[in-house]
Predict the structure.
Amino acid sequence: MKGKRFNKWLETIMLCAALCVCTNVVCAQSDNDDARHYFDSLTALLNGNITPEERLELLGQISYEHYNVDSTAKYANMALELARKLKNSAMIGSAYNLLGWCSYIHDDSERACQYYREAINCFDSAGLTAQLALSYYGLASALNVMGDDMMADDYYNQALNIYVEQRDTFHVADIWRKKGIASMNFHLFMTAEEYFVRALKLDSLRNDSAAIGKDIYMLGANEFSKYKDYADMQALTLARNMMLDAYGIEERYGDWAIKYMVVQSLMDLYMEMAKHAEGEERAANIDSSRFFLNLTKSAIENSSLTEDAVYIDFWEADYLILSNRAAEALTILQRVELMPSLAWEKEMRMCDLIIDCYQQLGDYKNALKYTNLRTMLDKETYKRDFAVKTTRSSTALEFERDMHQRELAAQRQKYVIRIVAVSLVLMSSLFVTILLGFLRKRKLSRELAMQKDEVQKKNDELKLRNDKILTQRDEIEMQRNSIIRTNQAITASINYAKHVQDAAVTSKEVMDSIFGDSLIIWKPMNIVSGDFYWAVEKNGLKMIAVADCTGHGVAGAFMSMFGISTLNSVTATSQTLTSAAGVLNQMRAKIIEELHQSSGNGESLESIDMAFCIIDSKTMQMHYAGANRPLLIVRDGKMLTYKPDKMPVGLHVLHSSPFTDNIIDLKPDDRIYFYTDGITDQFGSDGTRDISKFSNKRLCSMLTELANLPFDQQSAIISERLALWRTQPNGTLMEQIDDQLLVGIRI
């Protein structure tokens, strides 16, 4: 139960911090005189001679930036009333969003849900997807607090889809964290760790130090929750190390809300470690806990979270109980008990500590009294959550109950039929046995007895064998279901990885903006791909790369993300980018260094086959360097082929040799093509010969034939011919053996 309270508190703090970031509400240092003076000057402008539109914009600004939650609600209501008169859907939705956030902070989650749903209606009708995602996010957070985790997850997914489409990695990582917290609340610690690691990878790609610290903290909180459930001291040690790392990062880059979470968790964590230590180690842990207690006090004094000051009293009481000073701890807790409107999770923690005090004092009567109160709080919490969920899904529950009763009736009928059948068989066997006994009379009595024993023995053996078969069937069914769930989870994870990979590669729109028009045929073998394409325009130069990484599927996708990251790093840091071979040389050095490749380790080495070009539109010259990937140019109906160096980008027997820089004079209307070997190595048949590879020759012939057509027509015809090549006589497609990528541009 302590683990559940910790996760609930952690979730509440995380939601507050996330919503503060999303809505730009200034919560830290609310007593700052400069901030007050700033808002006083803004409110003074409301009394001036301004237009209704200017007044609405001013109210929106004050609502978003005010340091006080109640003031935010006040000005948001004023903005809502004026926005309705002006029929401004965007401002109506924004006001509802702020009112939803204020209700959420005041623990009125049901009203928060109403406000967020109103905001969703406004933004949806106005087509404002960015604001709509924020409303989905807020509604999911409120539903999470109310305990409707399934509905909350649906809205998180809707917000996630928008953020992925917008390539907003900041909010994608934030929703991964939210899903991790939900999994942690359900004690699914491995799933939670996977979500937090996903968020960490995205934040690392953005080099967001504050968010990285938050992700490391959540990994530590997950280990702390695991310790609470399983008393795993190794998990407690991991939690301490991760939280200290997060504290070091947030001390330099984080905001007050994240740092507040970290220091309060470290305060509780060191107190927990003190309970398992003795002597100097125990004293050191208590000193560390008190150090973070002082930081927690400072954070509460400099923020609007004064209601969290009760956690300081809980720490003091815990410390006194640990020091065998239960009477002093009881005095503090009795003062806390008199506080009005104490939140249920705080009241349950207070009951736990009071029970420990009375047990230490030997007052078991009062200990039993608060134990009963603690049990009642658990039941009330359960009833409240159950009532909310029952109200929302009564029809579904009635249907499920009806189906369950039918299923039970069917099972009972099967059992009755089985019992009757077994009874009939036994009765028939008994009748036959008695009949034979009468026929053989006394002369055969011994033989009958022996036969009866033998029949009984065989029946027992058959029953035992049948039981074993049923047990094996149940085990096979469980294993099959487990495999299905595992495959579904893996497929879902790979599909999410597909969204990330799609966001990383250059989009068709960007390709068209750089080259005017482009052809892209990209067919991964297993959802995600080891092939990728990349393009950028820098300092008047157009750069393009088409690559085939070692492996395919998940392994190839990881290598492709590393290749894209390395390309971005090399092209961003290089002072001169006139040599395509120079870029490949730098990439090779970076890959060997980052992947710690050495020729004597006896392992397979990762590498990238790549065609890389730098195009100068002013001079009409192109620099091309190839690592096992050629370059094709169709000019005046003829195919020109430029061969690559026979070595990859990575460790190779020739890795000390530089790549060759080919300088090519371009002409207007040249068609330039890049491709990976997944197309040319694909097995199939044109119907006139045995199964063979598609081949470089067949690809070059097809591109020469189609080069003068628009790229959209080329794409349709090429895809159709590749599909026909794979089609077998029975109408099924031959298996795709590798990722396939074909990219074309026009000069």
User: Anything to note?
Assistant: The chain is about 70% helix and 10% strand. The domain at 31-66+68-166 is CATH 1.25.40.10 (Serine Threonine Protein Phosphatase 5, Tetratricopeptide repeat). The radius of gyration is 35 Å. Residues 445-504 form the longest helix (60 residues).
